[in-house]
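Whiteboard transcription, Tuesday session. T.W. wrote the structure tokens on the left side:
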């Protein structure tokens, strides 16, 4: 009886923790419209494009810093950002920015937002980009 009760409590704890993790993921991965709105309302200048320099030149968000996730100097450049201010991260489709955002959170950045679907979804939403 005690073992079954222990397993049940363990299972409930696992469900609650998984739910909390998914809530955090949803809360920090924003649609293009919400990503744009959040940048504008926070007045953040910490917008980071983690694509390659070539991809960045094809079009990027206004005032975005290009810090290539796959580049040799990623960690060095990211460490120069303010960990206490919100950071907005994006890439082409969301994979690289998700990895970069997770790295940043693990390294003390308090608020990191990801552009869900990347710049592909941003462009599809008709939002502006610079070249």
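and on the right, the sequence the group agreed on:
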């Amino acid at each position: 009886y005690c073992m079954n009760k222990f397993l049940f409590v363990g299972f409930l704890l696992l469900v609650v923790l998984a739910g909390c993790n998914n809530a955090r993921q949803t809360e920090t991965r924003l649609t293009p419209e919400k990503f744009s709105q959040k940048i504008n309302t926070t007045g953040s200048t910490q917008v980071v494009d983690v694509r390659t320099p070539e991809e960045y030149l094809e079009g990027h968000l206004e005032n975005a810093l290009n810090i290539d996730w796959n580049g040799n100097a990623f960690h060095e450049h990211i460490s120069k950002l303010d960990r206490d201010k919100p950071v907005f991260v994006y890439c082409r489709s969301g994979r690289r920015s998700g990895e970069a955002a997770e790295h940043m959170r693990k390294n003390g950045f308090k608020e990191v937002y990801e552009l869900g679907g990347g710049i592909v979804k941003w462009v599809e939403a008709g939002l502006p980009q610079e070249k």
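Someone added at the bottom: DSSP finds six helices and five strands in the chain.
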